[in-house]
Amino acid sequence: MGAAALTVILVSTGYAGSDLYNLRLARRQERLARVNRQLAALHGAFLALTEADSRLFAASTERHPRADGRSPRRCARERFDALKRGRTRLL
Question: Is pTM beyond 0.70 here?
Fold first, then answer.
């Protein structure tokens, strides 16, 4: 009788442990899915903003070219490099 009771207790404990583990795993997967949805929503918004900004900049530089004919992107890069080198005066 004792062996049967011990078997029932061990099976019940194993079942309860397995059930709790599966519950924890399901909660963790739901949290990960929620974070992935939030990141996808955030990334989508940033992608749209970046794309719109890029198109606006391209249209602006095409419509209003510089008098010296240099690329505005190159001028911005030169200014950044000058600031990085520690120059106080910009180009």
Answer: no
